[in-house]
Amino acid sequence: MDLPILSEFVVIFGLSIAVIFIFHKIRVPAIVGFLLTGILAGPHGFGLVKAVEEVEIMADVGVILLLFTIGLELSAKELIRLKKPVFVGGAVQLFGTILVFFIFSRLFDYSSGQALLFGFLAATSCTTIVLKIWQDSSQIESPHGRVALSVLIFQDMMSIPMILLVPFLAGQEANLASSLLVLMVKAVAVLAVVFLLSRYVVPTVLLNVVRTKSRELFLITTLAICLSIAFLTSEVGLSLALGAFLAGLIISESEFSLSALGGVIPFRDVFTSLFFISIGMLLNSSYLFAHLPMVLLVVAAIIAFKAVIAGSAAIVLGYPLRTAVLLGLALAQIGEFSFIIAKLGLDNGVIGNDAYQLFLAASIATMAITPFAMRLSPAVADRLESFRIFAPLMRRPTEKSAESGAFTDARDHLIIVGYGISGRSLERAARTADIPHVIIEMNPDTVRAGKKKGIPIFYGDATQDAVLEHARIGSARVLAVVIPDAAAARRIVESAKELNPSIHVVARTRFISETEELRRLGAEDVIPEEFETAIEIFTRVLCNYMIPRQQIQCLAADMRAEGYSLLREERSISPLIELDRRFSDMDVSGVTIEPGSSAVGKTLEELALRRDYGVTVVAVGRDGHVEPNPDGMYVLQAGDLLYMFGKHTEVTNALGLFTTSNEMKRSPS
């Protein structure tokens, strides 16, 4: 069977691998590598790919999936929370850029339609590049990161109207007003259908699909919704892109949006890469070198104007000069949607091939410059802050208020994957101890029931990076994986360590044989059910032989100390973990002093814990304050939380001093 297109894709992906690998080494975003791949492989490069039209068809699928995922990532709640930076900051940046480039283009005798198109092309920024760079450097939650996210959201929203307006800029419509009116009526009708689907149809369909627990069925259903809505809008004369965006919005209002996003992202990334490769194929390198001075002039104008306008948006919102500089240089490139708008402008005759080639050359250059501009932006901000003229802009009140937020600002929190018996117990303990936490669960009925009770739980597949990132994995302290699926647990542990290498991972597994792989993937603590079941079985057996419970607890502690030390893998680990390995039978344990226990009212010296029990009190918690290394005259009170260091058996022996249960009291060993 002869498949010529297959050989074309072999060339494209093979060349992409080489280019992206090199770009990764020099820390240039992959999107620039895809553009360069297209330039090299295209008809104006080495001519390695002949089937450019077939590649463009595949690229159109990438555009559909790109807009679909943007719709999935947007929600009414998110827009309300960021309404001022989205609608005020976004409007200042977008409409300010359109206006400036419209005037600039008119000065060079371009028609009004062409000038407005140039404004559209300059208005958007590259979401992929900006968010990727700041995500890698943990700056998404910074003031400039939040404003950038808000402005990019507004750009994404306004890209749809700009795309729809491009055919009218050619001036080919005899009656522009009536055409726009018909278009608006169609748009309203489509929105009405979308509202009905999102309220009454799609949630029910997705709920029934999710209950089957078939990942394949869920993914196919998600893509079917996307393509169906896109086809509907195309049939009524609107764009496929608009339909894909609306399909994303429909699903975004359901609790299954994160899982849908995680499932579609791999397809989106592959097909979107083809889109950028196809754009690179269109660039005429001979035109670039023949008009290099003009290209450089346009690049300089784009970066200068866009940086100043985007920075002005931050100033309008009340942010300081530093935030404005970081934001301005980050948003100074041309965005993904501009390529779509430019291609539509070329197809509709708004601009000619020369202007299109100039746009492509300048756009690719701005994207390539962006990573380096963002790295230099702190130094540029420092330099500008040294001038007195900018002194009033150096400290602004909004910078502090931007740090506030709900769970999006969570730090040092606990992520629980799975809400079965173990997950419920852990959530209850975290709530009691006032530990900030969030739960990821795959059962939709469990999620709905939990939300009604006010439990911080959401539906999602934690094997997908998008779901873990939604739970703020980057700033979490502990991840507890308490699901029965061993394969899924391994994928979650691996992904978590890639997203946050410093997070402490506790994983549950069924069998001891599975612990080695989980530890290899990065889990610090692995709790095998098989091992704990063995302990519980011998505990029940010994109880039936009337062995004292405190003796059984000591035996269980010894078995855990010995067993878990044997389960530890010899590997390169940090000094703290190495210390834990060498003293695996010792631990820091916390115990609350119960009212009426023998320790109430006594000093640490009177209790003689070190002499009689072999344990050391390293800290005492009282009324939210922790007293480290308390001296011997420290008087204990009911409700105090004692942190004791010692062997598990010794700590167990001492517990009777702090409880009112006679069963726990025993003489020191």
From TrEMBL:
<dbReference type="Pfam" id="PF00999">
    <property type="entry name" value="Na_H_Exchanger"/>
</dbReference>
<feature type="transmembrane region" description="Helical">
    <location>
        <begin position="296"/>
        <end position="319"/>
    </location>
</feature>
<dbReference type="InterPro" id="IPR036291">
    <property type="entry name" value="NAD(P)-bd_dom_sf"/>
</dbReference>
<dbReference type="InterPro" id="IPR038770">
    <property type="entry name" value="Na+/solute_symporter_sf"/>
</dbReference>
<dbReference type="Pfam" id="PF02080">
    <property type="entry name" value="TrkA_C"/>
</dbReference>
<keyword id="KW-0633">Potassium transport</keyword>
<dbReference type="InterPro" id="IPR006037">
    <property type="entry name" value="RCK_C"/>
</dbReference>
<feature type="transmembrane region" description="Helical">
    <location>
        <begin position="55"/>
        <end position="74"/>
    </location>
</feature>
<dbReference type="InterPro" id="IPR006153">
    <property type="entry name" value="Cation/H_exchanger_TM"/>
</dbReference>
<keyword id="KW-0813">Transport</keyword>
<dbReference type="GO" id="GO:0008324">
    <property type="term" value="F:monoatomic cation transmembrane transporter activity"/>
</dbReference>
<keyword id="KW-1133">Transmembrane helix</keyword>
<dbReference type="Pfam" id="PF02254">
    <property type="entry name" value="TrkA_N"/>
</dbReference>
<feature type="transmembrane region" description="Helical">
    <location>
        <begin position="270"/>
        <end position="289"/>
    </location>
</feature>
<keyword id="KW-0630">Potassium</keyword>
<feature type="transmembrane region" description="Helical">
    <location>
        <begin position="30"/>
        <end position="49"/>
    </location>
</feature>
<feature type="transmembrane region" description="Helical">
    <location>
        <begin position="358"/>
        <end position="376"/>
    </location>
</feature>
<dbReference type="InterPro" id="IPR003148">
    <property type="entry name" value="RCK_N"/>
</dbReference>
<feature type="domain" description="RCK C-terminal">
    <location>
        <begin position="574"/>
        <end position="660"/>
    </location>
</feature>
<dbReference type="GO" id="GO:1902600">
    <property type="term" value="P:proton transmembrane transport"/>
</dbReference>
<dbReference type="InterPro" id="IPR036721">
    <property type="entry name" value="RCK_C_sf"/>
</dbReference>
<comment type="similarity">
    <text>Belongs to the monovalent cation:proton antiporter 2 (CPA2) transporter (TC 2.A.37) family.</text>
</comment>
<feature type="transmembrane region" description="Helical">
    <location>
        <begin position="217"/>
        <end position="250"/>
    </location>
</feature>
<feature type="domain" description="RCK N-terminal">
    <location>
        <begin position="411"/>
        <end position="528"/>
    </location>
</feature>
<dbReference type="GO" id="GO:0006813">
    <property type="term" value="P:potassium ion transport"/>
</dbReference>
<feature type="transmembrane region" description="Helical">
    <location>
        <begin position="86"/>
        <end position="104"/>
    </location>
</feature>
<keyword id="KW-0406">Ion transport</keyword>
<dbReference type="GO" id="GO:0015297">
    <property type="term" value="F:antiporter activity"/>
</dbReference>
<protein>
    <submittedName>
        <fullName>Potassium transporter KefB</fullName>
    </submittedName>
</protein>
<feature type="transmembrane region" description="Helical">
    <location>
        <begin position="147"/>
        <end position="170"/>
    </location>
</feature>
<dbReference type="GO" id="GO:0016020">
    <property type="term" value="C:membrane"/>
</dbReference>
<keyword id="KW-0812">Transmembrane</keyword>
<feature type="transmembrane region" description="Helical">
    <location>
        <begin position="116"/>
        <end position="135"/>
    </location>
</feature>
<feature type="transmembrane region" description="Helical">
    <location>
        <begin position="176"/>
        <end position="197"/>
    </location>
</feature>
<keyword id="KW-0472">Membrane</keyword>
<feature type="transmembrane region" description="Helical">
    <location>
        <begin position="6"/>
        <end position="23"/>
    </location>
</feature>
<feature type="transmembrane region" description="Helical">
    <location>
        <begin position="325"/>
        <end position="346"/>
    </location>
</feature>
